[in-house]
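Why predict the complex rather than its parts? Because the way molecules touch one another can change local conformation, and only a joint prediction can capture that. The input here totals 686 residues.
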Amino acid sequence: MSDITKSGFSRRSILKSGAAVAAASTIPTGWAIAQAKPVKIGLMLPYSGTFAKLGENITFAIELLIAEKGGKLGGREIQIVKLDDESKPENAPQNADRLVKRDQVDVLIGTVHSGVQMGIHKVVKESGTLTIVPNAGNDVITRAECAKNVFRTSFTNWQSAYGMGLALGKKGVKKVAWVTWDYAAGNDMGAGFKEGLQKSGGQVVQELKLPFPQTTFQPLLAQIPGLNVDAVGAFFAGGAAVQFVKEYAAAAIKAPLCGPGFLTEGTLAAQGASAEGIETALHYGDGLDNPKNTAFRKAFNAKAGRDADVYAVQGYDAAQLLAVGLEAVKGKIEDEAGLYKAMRAAKIDSPRGPISISPSQNVVHNIYLRKATGGQNKVIGIAAENLADPGTGCKLT
Amino acid sequence: MDFPGLLAQLLNGFQHGLLLFLIASGLTLIFGVMGIINLAHGSLFMIGAYVAFLVTRQWGSLWLALPMAMIGGILLGSVLERGLFRYFYARDHLDQVLLTFALILLFEEGRSLLVGNEFYSVPIPPLLDFSVPVTSGFSYSAYRFTVIGICLALAALLFYWIERTKTGAVIRAAAEKPEMVDVLGIDARRVHMTVFAVGTTLALIAGALAAPLYSVYPNMGDGFLIISFVVVVIGGLGSVSGALWSALIIGLVDTLGKAYAPKVAGLAVYVLMAAVLIWRPSGLFGQRT
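Output of the joint prediction:
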């Protein structure tokens, strides 16, 4: 299912650009023709299923930035093509292929689901299409599998977990247990958490894992009191995070619970009192006080009719990064070297704070420490400043 | 392995086992009396869980969901038996497997259309939303104790029904010597429908009770179906008391495995099943060979 929307593209402007092409063709310079053609952005995001809201928020934010720039980036009109990836990894290569080959998009922005991201990655590594990842956090995309045409403005799984581990150790916590699902994201997070904790003098003494997506947490929880740990770190998301946090509270375990931000992200209303006081680490949070954030949240709410969240911020920054690149080459997207060079050097004022791009082309950002208070993930400090993913195994120059 | 921790795990295993019994008893009854291997039994469990989710979301009460799961189970079981399964008793097992597999697909697709594919947690009833300390540093949710109580009560009812009532006697007879039931002029079709409705209802109630403990998610019935088959095989096909003992054994092995040997936990129950099959091919309590 795909529908083609022409963002800010009226019949008159089509006629105008048509006229411009006609006029330009009489002056046969490649430059003029290139200027008249809009830059085609393919959005490959989930618009149905579990992650539909994430896909919508990312799209609203991208459209918001383009509108703020007057419908043009680097002087070029923008045309948006949307494709619903349904968060189905099995269809991902085919869907990505459709955008790249049939629609011939200049830029692909996508996606949310890590498995689908692998499918996109396979296709764009081959085609060389500029790709910006607005959510999927699998480390490998900007590590061993990194590519010069793939950028990420969201996070790596490693980053927020590392920040949490670091903050925990700094508090003087020594012995910690780690609980998660035994699958790619859980293991990426676990590695980051352990590394951060070790760096600041603590240690993961026991890892408790269960198969994805099981929710039989009791056999794991019942072991925790016997481990005599000072704290417990956990990664779960969505409905399972709600379940886990509630069961943790019901078990009345003395060691405080913490984790990467996903543990309490978008779930606080359902978790209720059981989440109160839980500390988490993420690159965004409630009450982040900077002018850019205030303006962004206001504009987003006006456009979308709901509050911005971390996914909206990631989408907005994907468009901001593209804008930086296109402005540097004055809209000449064909100038690949110049475009990538500008994007790699980008310093962007994001609603989450200042961000930049690491050598492996993943976002460098602050990881905030947040505390769940009265239904909000209140930012209480910075867990790790300007944290870059190590990009292990990535060879880009 | 610390002692208080072990105590809590035994409690977990007991509760898990009792819930498995509710699912497995229906499976084994239906097989024992009608000879049908109902692969869709896990989907029935899933339906019960989604009923609990929808009812609690709509009216905020799990207590309303339990009678609804019960009535729904009796209706659904009767309709399935009358409309579909009745025509398959005489067919061979492959046909039955295809039928019940098709039902899994239908139920899952229906769930997807009606409720979607999200993962939902179901709130524990406010009345029971408190914890009872079982060891120093570990508490057990009052709801879990309630589930244990309800499962024990249902198990007692089921045994009373099968061992002490006339219908129960007919069911036992139908399981052991079906031809005798016919000779005695008992309407076997009525017995079949009753057994199927009871089995379905037990699965739906198990699902409704389990929803606040395990959340609801697509294909949630699959895992429970497979482990219930293990319970049925170990307990002996068609034996309800066998299902009770083996459900408790499997509950404990599974829970202790997950806690103390997570790497091999997935395997433990199957190794146990293989061992039982070698040692006693008809199961611990099975009579047929």
